[in-house]
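re: that chain from earlier
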Amino acid sequence: MHDQTAARTKGIAEQLRQHSMVRAEVDEGYRGLANEFPGQGSAPPKKTKDDAPLGEHHAWREQRRRQSSARIHVEHANAELKQW
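^ sequence. v structure.
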């Protein structure tokens, strides 16, 4: 099942709707959810087009790196739970 479908069937979207103060850093699979709740969900930036200026490519890479650095702790915690 797709991540976003699972989030909707398990009630995560409804929880975001009911609790506007909740914030979530999500991965690429939840981009639609982040678009639906722009002030609450933050997905990685979309990749730049191949013909975009070099400065845009560098800015995209830096934004992606910052978002990944913020999420890595949660990803490691999830991985530890799956090992048990």
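The chain has a mean pLDDT of 84.
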